[in-house]
Amino acid sequence: MTDAIPERPRRRRSWAEPYKIKVVEPLKMTTRAEREQAIAEAGYNTFLLRSEDVYIDLLTDSGTSAMSDRQWAGMMVGDEAYAGSKNFYSLEEAIQKYYGYRYILPTHQGRGAENILSKILIKPGDYIPGNMYFTTTRLHQELAGGTFVDVIIDEAHDPRSQHPFKGNVDLQKLTDLIKRVGAERIPYISVAGTVNMAGGQPISMANLRAVYELAKSHDIRIILDATRAVENAYFIQQREADYHQQSIAIILKEFCSYTDGCTMSGKKDALVNIGGWLALNDPDIYEEARNMIVIYEGLHTYGGMAGRDMEAMAIGIEESVQDDHIRARIGQVEYLGQKLLDWNIPIVVPIGGHAIYLDAKAFLPHIPQDQFPAQLLAAELYREAGIRAMERGIVSAGRNKDTGDHYYPELELVRLTIPRRVYTQAHMDLTAEAVDEVYYNRHRLRGLKMVYEPKYLRFFQARFELL
């Protein structure tokens, strides 16, 4: 009788990306002295660096994704007719199928849709509640005469809170605002999925459904910022019991069904380098928006996009809702985040969808917020390893339009944004090691002073000097 074979202990299996690399782009390697000169010349603003001087570019996931072979093939069948391009109809069909909206207007990118929507719906003196501000969204609302009101749950402002849906709307805050200003002064509720400024945090299906019911009882619209709604659908699948067995595509369509329209930057979830759309269900608002599109974007069947880009976006939408894709996409973000957590580096938790957010207040507690600690930390990470990240704190928050004072957000963050299908696990390892090195030497760092501030969206072009 032979000895029984002992049972093999279970081990965690590694995951791998559901694609293989066909084309590579060489990266420039720089010395520390070269990086110190480059960041100083850029005024310690990572937006002002030349991309060729960047080794690992984690500035944004907007327009930085790698397109698939199918998307590149789609580019070759671009119909560049000025009116009625066949690629528009491919895009329209994809949006209607996977997002569920009735009327589609392409725009050059997401803020084009925000501009049109704000001009149509917002009147001076209106209030727009939302689950935390986003920079361009709030600015368009303000330029139209409106005032943004934050109605997100309190946990969203706490980087250490483990709430699984920190993007949720606080229904009591929303109800109080409706009672205070009146439903007629609220043109729509602005809901983002996921919430960028909170750390890429999702809103639950249950919460959005409740917001929808409350809004309908007061005859108020809901407009979705659908930029990363596919990533939000993934978190619903993973964290809400009723959706564990549902596909991402099914969850996404139900999610959008609790809204009346959306603005979209196709440069994120939809896996393209340029483009966006405005989607609506109301025929009257659509008719007005279609007329405005001609003024600000282009004809309603191209809206500032080339036919080839519309075709690539239509294909990208189909690819974006595949479960294997989104699991690997967010899995790479989680890999980097867990590595930093294992090394006790302060980040926003739970780990979000498109980026890891370093908690600059905890990272650099000796630097006061008006000395721009997150801006400094982003610059220092570039100086250390050629990694470009983005500030998401007091600089991004801007100034109060009435008083001119800085906004002082609770969250002072540095965003390490992971482009889709671009970097390898080795790049994530190197990024984690660079963050760890900066963290080890954090006590040597000193703050910044702002020496140039543009009128709008200052984080793009502001310049700083070391104190």
UniProtKB/TrEMBL annotation:
Reactions the enzyme catalyzes: L-tyrosine + H2O = phenol + pyruvate + NH4(+)
Keywords noted in UniProt: Lyase, Pyridoxal phosphate
Cofactor(s) for this UniProt protein: pyridoxal 5'-phosphate
Species, as recorded: Tolypothrix tenuis PCC 7101
Quaternary structure and interacting proteins, as annotated: Homotetramer.
InterPro entries, per the entry: ArAA_b-elim_lyase/Thr_aldolase, Beta-eliminating_lyase, PyrdxlP-dep_Trfase, PyrdxlP-dep_Trfase_major, PyrdxlP-dep_Trfase_small, Tryptophanase_CS, Tyr_phenol_ly
HAMAP family: Tyr_phenol_lyase
Main enzyme class: lyase
Residues the record lists as N6-(pyridoxal phosphate)lysine modifications: 268
Cell division among keywords: no
Protein family according to the UniProt entry: Belongs to the beta-eliminating lyase family.
Protein name (database record): Tyrosine phenol-lyase
